[in-house]
């Protein structure tokens, strides 16, 4: 574990090489650099994992620290670059390395342009380096540096085709949303440092438990600032724009961001500071409200999306909320298990969609496709397994157990409303994904020409398809003693599993009735008055962009116009105009008539006497 710092240095060096020399390196050499970088990281993580297990004592939590150098000193506070590895950070490092390897391998088979390949691998390596720094940091300041590195990397990856105005706009929009949220995170760091006078993560958690009262005002504001910062990465409503704008990026980029980066970085942050969040009950109420709104919002919008990338993005956004539902019931181990399940399902769905778009010559409109289940049976099977996971297929998929435990935990904690919303979310995601599958694979074929893809592209899909099944449910995770472990009461849970199975079957039946036939009842619903109103609202994403335009953009442009006209100079001109007007009136009184002057003196004397008497 003495070479742990190489997990940050190796992808950073690879990023610098590709950025500086990528345009002058052959495509084959770029692939070698990109794949070998992530291969070295996976090999290094294997050695770290073996070393960690060899040094772990039963019933204890091993914490390894490595001081590198002192960065700077402010007063009595010293900020050092040092790394810390425990069971929680080890789990996240392994997950990120594994999924990055699959995505990098897929990108090597999927991308054809040399420019696309070198920019993807370069910015992807910067992203991985930032993620590893975020996870291994032992103090909040260094963690924030890694957090900002993730934001910058997301901006660069989303804007790979920055020459296109729409892509550039989306990248800037996503970056602004993340930076606004990051500002709140920075406020939280200032607050906790002001209270505890330390930035070391282990020390501040211990001091918070000793010195800060549960449900106190300061702990609420600290956790609130942290949660808003997390929302910017995770994409919870109303910070979902940073998540949804990733749909403009190439498919390997979408997979890396939606399946790995945004969910795992935000999930790690909350798990790392779970003792602080447990000290504020009010913050969990806010988390539950926003997670519930996000599920309904994403589910409704996904039902009316016709572009494959947008449809998949909103489906994934709805699934992220279940992680926060697990946080609400404070079952941290369950939340980590669902993160793994989400990453598997999301990556499988996105990579399958990548191949679908590729073979269809870049066509994304689902109503311009059809009849593909005989031509591409392996791709059809991958979509069916993705759908089975999203639908929480009873007793077959790992998502059935993780989602079921989350919903059961909500109901056991007297949160029946949230449990009902979670069930509705499963129903909406079932309708959305089956709408895509029935339309693309079962409707009448419309395309005549297709593109062949390398068979090696299916290897990551096969691996992910196997991992999505119930075989890999509840993997052993070395996080005992790091996050609180809560035993879930499973008594009478079979009734909930039967209810969940009934919701899944109901969703499949409704989807079959509405979407299996191209001339189905959905057309009547869409043309009904209430149907038109709802579809218009959902297509406009609840008019959220118009609301932002009204609340922020329009006032900002108005202020810009005022500043453009130099309001200070305008104020000076008003004063000068007023002085000239008064001076002109005074000049008119100087007419040289003695009677007028005497009357003015008498009037002024009377006015002065009145003021003296009244005052």
UniProtKB/TrEMBL annotation:
Residues 71-121 form the NADH-Ubiquinone oxidoreductase (complex I) chain 5 N-terminal domain. Pfam families: Proton_antipo_M, Proton_antipo_N. Keywords: Membrane, Transmembrane, Transmembrane helix. It is a multi-pass membrane protein. Residues 137-428 form the NADH:quinone oxidoreductase/Mrp antiporter transmembrane domain. The chain crosses the membrane at residues 6-23, 30-54, 88-110, 117-135, 141-162, 174-193, 218-239, 251-271, 283-304, 311-333, 339-357, 378-397, 417-438, 458-475, 495-515, 596-614. The keyword Membrane applies. InterPro entries: ND/Mrp_TM (IPR001750), NU5C-like (IPR003945), Proton_antipo_N (IPR001516). It is found in: Endomembrane system; Membrane. PANTHER family: NADH-UBIQUINONE OXIDOREDUCTASE CHAIN 5. This is NADH-quinone oxidoreductase subunit L. It comes from Orbus sasakiae.
